[in-house]
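lol forgot to send this yesterday, sorry. struct tokens for the thing we talked abt
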């Protein structure tokens, strides 16, 4: 049996996007399998996390993620539309969140179908590479198709979303129990590795534990 690694992931996180582009290749030489666990972004779970008093934090992220993506040769552009509905001037979060709920539930369904991380890789690349109106036309359908999934049947399986919301909320509880609320978060044998720039640390630990194939 290969060793499980949990990946807590938000479709609104540019760093999660970067991690999704790197993780499969980085972990391919180890005897592990990734359990993809989508969570709602902190802007939804903790609306005050990105309030007006934290503009410096937001400003840094907006600079840093683009720099990091370009360094890695990845396309980078802020999503249109934003995966969460938020007033950028006031930082207020809308009670209605159709985009992030749809993405998170689709991620949960993709994992149920055995393709969570590949789905996240393709969908996040569509969203964070500057695809106009990524939520319209067949952008998501094509992303799903590239990893052998059918978007229409996935959305039919989600239905009213109650069961998939429960999955996401359980993921969030497990993430907090693992000791960190941020994303992307890899958890291996109960130990958290936070950030797309800690994949190398995770690989070092896997090699140290004799899991290199």
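and heres what i got for the seq, position by position
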């Amino acid at each position: 049996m290969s060793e499980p690694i949990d990946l807590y992931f938000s479709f609104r996180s540019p760093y999660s996007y970067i991690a999704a582009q790197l993780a499969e290749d980085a972990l391919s030489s180890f005897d592990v399998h990734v359990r993809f666990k989508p969570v709602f972004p902190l802007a939804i779970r903790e609306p005050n996390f990105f309030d007006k008093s934290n503009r410096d934090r937001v400003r840094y992220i907006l600079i840093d993620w683009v720099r990091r993506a370009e360094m890695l040769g990845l396309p980078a552009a802020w999503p249109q539309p934003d995966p969460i509905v938020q007033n950028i001037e006031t930082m207020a979060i809308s009670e209605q969140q159709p985009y992030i709920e749809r993405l998170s539930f689709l991620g949960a369904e993709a994992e149920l179908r055995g393709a969570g991380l590949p789905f996240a890789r393709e969908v996040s690349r569509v969203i964070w590479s500057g695809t106009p109106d990524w939520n319209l036309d067949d952008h998501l359908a094509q992303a799903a198709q590239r990893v052998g999934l059918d978007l229409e049947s996935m959305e039919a399986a989600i239905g009213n979303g109650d069961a998939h919301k429960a999955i996401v909320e359980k993921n969030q509880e497990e993430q907090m129990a693992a000791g960190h609320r941020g994303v992307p978060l890899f958890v291996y044998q109960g130990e958290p590795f936070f950030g797309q720039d800690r994949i190398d640390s995770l690989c070092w630990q896997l090699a140290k534990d004799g899991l290199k194939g």
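The domain at 3-208 is CATH 3.40.30.10 (Glutaredoxin). anyway ping me if u want another try
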